[in-house]
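[Solved] Which block belongs to which protein?

Original post:
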Amino acid sequence: MTKTRTLCAAALLALTAMGASAQILIGQTAGMTGSVAASVNETIGGAQLVIDAANAQGGIHGEKIEVVRMDDAFDVKRAGENARVLIEDKKVVALFMSRGTPHSQAIIPWLDKNEVALIGPSTGAMVLHKPLQKHVFNVRATYQREAEKAVQHLLTIGLTRIAVVYVTDSFGKDALEGAMTGFTKGKATPTVTVPADRDKPDYAAIVPAIKDANAQAVLWIGSGIAVVDGIKALRASGSAAQVVTLSNNASSGFIKQLGDASRGVIVTQVFPSERSLGQPMVKEALTLAKAKGQAELSPAALEGFASAKVLVEALRRAGPRPTRAKVLAALESIRSYDLGGGLEVSYTPQDHSGIDFADLAIISDGRFKR
């Protein structure tokens, strides 16, 4: 009897070990609470559509994907520490979809130390593209491309008195560089450039600077609540200046937070319209969303969806029981991987850029419209 019990216990331990090994652990640190929570949680929802669909089909080579998520509340130091825990303690095979430029920069030392890939960071910072970051694999377009396109659009429609408000961190400086490229190409200069603290913007100084410059339009480079409160303060001052912000604010949550101040705000986009039902990636995402009872998508959800497709493809190419090294090699083997409708992602050992797509959408009736 004792021998039988011992054998049963050993079998149970073996099965438990097999079950544990049949999970592919992926790590994520992002601001699931805090100033960018609305858009972060929408990107997570979009990504989960892909991950759940893959798991429902038996996983990748029989192994299911489990994303270990840690909330950094959009705090740079917490993002770096979370990355350390995920990589060194949780032993994830890759990191996925961090949020924020300085936050992603804080993660890079842990990637480099442990030879771990970061797939689809939710930031368009040029610093993650050039010079090459060996372990960072971008999916979305750069902020510089977006900011340049936004300025060119405003100049094209005859708005020449353009103010630029930019957050004083690596994200803000990066996007400002793109904006200045747009001004240079348009043979123009901003009427005023106004720095803004990331956590506590001084609207009492920012808004008068915009009004004193008699700005017809404002390119507001910032994130989440900080931009929402800034736009509300601008409207409360009586300014009717056209406001443009970047795709890091392209979420349904951003529109809801703006409330009545949302109408007419332009938000740059890095993926096709979520209502382009003929676009294959959008159609696929919407089909999966509806199966979960979700009636519509947001631009943020589409970004998460696209990044998760790259993650799943990399894991598929890495083969059974993927290691960190296998995932890295798999990513660099990706050439012209079609996310749907001609949106292709390619990586080489010299280039880890993603999709070069930038568009504009205006908020109308509580929705983004192209």
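(Second protein starts here: sequence line, then its structure tokens.)
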Amino acid sequence: MSSSISRKSWGNFKNKDIYLFKIENKTGAFVELTNYGATVVSIVVPDKNNGLGNVILGFPELQGYLEDICYVGSTVGRFANRIARASFNLDGIDYQLEANSNGNSNHSASAGVNSKVFDYIVDDDRLIFKILSKDGEGGFPGNLTLEVCYQWTSDNALLITYTAITDRKTIVNVTNHCYFNLSAIADRNFLNHRLKINAKSMLESAADYIPTGRLVRTNGSELNDLKGINTCYVLDKNGAAATLVDPESGRVLDVYTSYPGLMLYTGDYLESRCNGHLGEPYKPLDGICLECQFYPDSPNHPSFPSTILKPDHLYQESITYKFSTQT
């Protein structure tokens, strides 16, 4: 095995046991995860001077996640991002979902798996979280069984695989909602980071972040002003989907994915009710999200890549966060 997995009790939620898992490789770098929301709690990797630091936002206690409203580190589904008017039509049937964002559905509202307790399996160096989202929950059709598999490699890559099956035709879009800050320093935001996205176009959206259906050309893949952005980029198929660099620490994050889109959210509305890992509540621009996924509102745009899952098909998508350093 390239990594070892340990577990400790972390509390209880609705009479279900919550655990904090640690996956550590032989270099001492590690990730921590919890079965509450299949959430990534920390990712601790070296800087250019080989000093270890946590590069995502998270909370040191379970209570931080129970009170969180910003999806910090969590798995987001059944359908990540927005669905216009909280409704969609599938095979002539109109489905009404819960509206939680200006009349739209965002991250599946109360049906969101980010606030659910997953079962878990430890399989050698793989940690697998599993949950059943029942037919009709939040308005979604089908009993959906979702598995989220995490692996932490010897060269500091976090591999995430999403697998789902359904007993009834439905829609699925699952992603990770980590907020990254490669500096690992409490009073430093990410505005000095450099970001490159491997995309030549992005979705045009209205003021409520619902896509119009049009694709527009980007002004270049390197973004210098990392604030005020909540945009889905249409990824090119080759190479890393995105590369994030912190020049001061020398840390580099390369993101790889099977998904067609990447939602860039600069955390302008981020606000936590509890103290984070470094002893302070989180505030806007403390972390940046690189959410690999299908396009927002896909069920209402036939020209977008399909998010339909049929009973005889397997949903399987992946995201890899690969960490390295440069001098």
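Accepted answer:
You had them paired correctly. Confirming on the second one: Helices lie at 62-66.
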